[in-house]
Amino acid sequence: MQTPDTERKIQQLAECGPLKAWSVIVSVLGDFCIARHDSISGRDLNALIERIGLTAPTMRVALHRLKRDGWIQTEKKGRDAAYRLSAMGWRETQAVRDRIYATGQPPAGPAQMILAPPSVTAADFAAALPKTAAPLAPRTAILAGPASGLPPDYWITPLDPGTAPAWVADAVAAPDLRQDYTRLTNAVADVLTATPPQDSLSLSAVRVLTLHHWRRLRLRHDDLPDILLGDDWEGARARQIVMTALDRFPRPSPGDLAA
Length: 259
What we know:
Layout: H1 4-14, H2 21-32, E1 40-41, H3 42-52, H4 56-68, E2 72-77, E3 80-85, H5 87-95, H6 97-101, E4 111-115, H7 122-128, E5 134-137, E6 140-144, E7 155-159, H8 166-172, H9 175-193, H10 200-218, H11 224-229, H12 234-248
C-alpha cells in the first residue's frame, strides 16, 4: 500500500502531458527491451499500462495500431503473448536513443545565424533552410551544425552559446516547451523527495512516466536549444533530474510487474 502523498505525486507525474497509449507502449518497449529480440509479456505490459492509468481496451487498440503500422511483433507464449519491437521499431528507437538517454548536454557544436539577401522571398528562404533551423525573421534563421547546401550569397556567421536574449530563446525553444519542461522537472523532483513506492509495479510506473514525458518533450526539438542556451535552460535542468530518477528507479526484472 502506497502512502497518499506518494500516490498523489505519481498522479502529478502522470498529468505532465498527454498519455497516448501507442506512444507509451513504444516508450516501454524501447526502455525495457535492451537487446534486439527482447520482449515483454502481455501480462506485464497490461499491468504496467493499467498502473499508469490507461485502460486495457485502450491498450488493445494501441497494440493493434502498432502492429498494423509495423512497429511491433507479437509472439504467442502459452495462454499469454509477448511483444517486441519490429525491425523498423527497433531501428527507429535506436536512432534517438542517444538523445533520450544521454546523461549530459550534447557536445557544444557550432550555432550559426543565417541571413539571406533582400531579393530572396520569405518562402524561398524557408524552402532553402535545413529542417532543424529556427526562423527568426522572414530572411533570418539560426542553425545548429554545419550550414551546408545554402546559396553562396547567404551570410552565415557563428554565434556564441549562452548569450542569446530572451526573444531568441523563444524562437529556438518555444515558451510552452520550456513550461512543459519545468512542469516535468517539478513533478519528478516531488517524486524523488517522496517515500519511494513499495512495489515493483509502482516503481516501474514512475520510471515509465518520467521517461515517456521526457522522451515526448526531447523529440520535439534538436540540439539547437542545448547548444545556444547552455546548461541552465529548462530542458537541461529537466535532463539532469530525469537521469537521476532513471538511476533511482531501474528497469524491473522480467516477470516482476504482474507478480
